[in-house]
Design goal:
mainly beta; two-stranded antiparallel ribbon; Porin; 343 residues; 1 helix; globular; single chain
């Protein structure tokens, strides 16, 4: 991996020193969304909210290929703040890029056919333990070019060199130091592969591996790692999807281990009623597997959704129910009404 990183840095440096950039373009896109959340069961209260994403994207050409710079603004309290950034260069040999809070490769949601969102990402009371993702850390990536590999296969690799430094959003800033502990890791490498072997079918898998875990002199009994795989198949107006993910938490010597891993299985189907209206059903089962049987638990979420799109306007309704919320014993329901405007 060190050789890969060195090669990427040499390529980036060469491009910066020897290529010429030509006048590019700047575009502004985004979404504004209003939601109304209605809880039921042991979940109470109605919540009305507004959210937005505003993306500024600059593009241009160099002697080596096209570059893209993207910055996303999101609300944080009463102010609008920078949320994500990325700078990529697409060449004939692939795409290289640097990502800040962006560039996720985890495919835990890859099989979801929810027409609004994944069942457990629809504003409900569910609280599954999801996989970690490289987008939570500043990282650099390489993607193979489209058409290089058979069956539409694309391979991506990402590397985060020091997760102990956070908030390094300025090339002149040193970031904020975060001391390593028995439950943290210092480097991360993530991989993703996707393919379309036959018409209508798409498949993929992802894996993230921390290179440095715990602290010096502390033995790690179980290393943290995350993996996922999915398959989606479209036949006419019907879409089928399945995904599976595994999440093993870090466990250090001398620390009592209660959780061995988390597993999620997601099944979903969608139907396009016409060019504007789509409906979907999704079931997600999240399991917690303990180091002994006393910690075993599961949570199941079912969701029915409908979405109507007309130009940049989307009206969506999602109704879901979660059993054993947060791997406990309660059952809670949730209905979400959303209006989204894309510009």
């Amino acid at each position: 991996m060190k050789n890969i990183i060195k090669t990427l840095m040499v390529v980036i440096s060469s491009v910066a020193l020897s290529s010429f950039a030509y006048a590019g373009e700047l575009s502004v896109t985004g979404t504004a969304k209003a939601t109304y959340n209605i809880g039921s069961g042991s979940s109470t209260g109605n919540a009305l909210g507004v959210n937005n994403h505003i993306d500024f994207t600059g593009t241009g050409e160099t002697d080596f290929g096209a570059f893209t710079y993207s910055i996303q603004m999101e609300p944080s309290g009463a102010t609008q703040t920078v949320a994500d950034q990325s700078l990529t260069l697409a060449t004939a040999y692939g795409t290289i890029g640097v990502f800040v809070s962006e560039g996720g490769l985890d495919l835990e949601d890859g099989g979801s056919r929810g027409v609004y969102a994944r069942a457990t990402d629809s504003g409900g009371p569910d609280n599954p333990v999801d996989n970690g993702d490289i987008s939570s850390y500043n990282n650099m990536q390489y993607h193979t070019p489209a058409g290089l590999l058979p069956f539409g296969t694309v391979f991506k690799v990402a590397y985060s060199g020091n997760t102990y430094d956070t908030a390094i959003n300025d090339s002149n800033a040193a970031g904020t130091a975060r001391a390593p502990s028995t439950t943290t890791f210092g480097t991360l490498t993530a991989y993703q592969i996707t393919a379309a072997p036959i018409e209508g079918l798409s498949i993929g898998a992802s894996y993230m591996d921390p290179g440095e875990q715990g602290i010096s002199g502390t033995k790690v009994n179980q290393k943290a790692e995350w993996g996922a795989a999915y398959a989606k198949y479209d036949i006419g107006a019907i879409g089928l999807g399945y995904s599976k993910s595994l999440n093993a938490p870090i466990n250090s010597f001398g620390v009592a281990q209660t959780i061995e891993y988390y597993e999620a299985n997601n099944y979903s189907v969608s139907f396009n009623v016409n060019e504007n209206l789509s409906v979907s059903y999704e079931k997600e089962k999240n399991e917690r597997i303990g180091a002994d049987a006393t910690a075993d638990a599961s949570q199941t979420t079912d969701a029915i959704q409908a979405a109507y799109t007309a130009g940049g306007l989307t009206l969506a309704v999602s109704h879901g129910e979660t059993k054993n919320v947060s791997y406990g014993t309660s059952t809670q329901g949730n209905t979400l009404i959303a209006v989204s405007m894309a510009f």
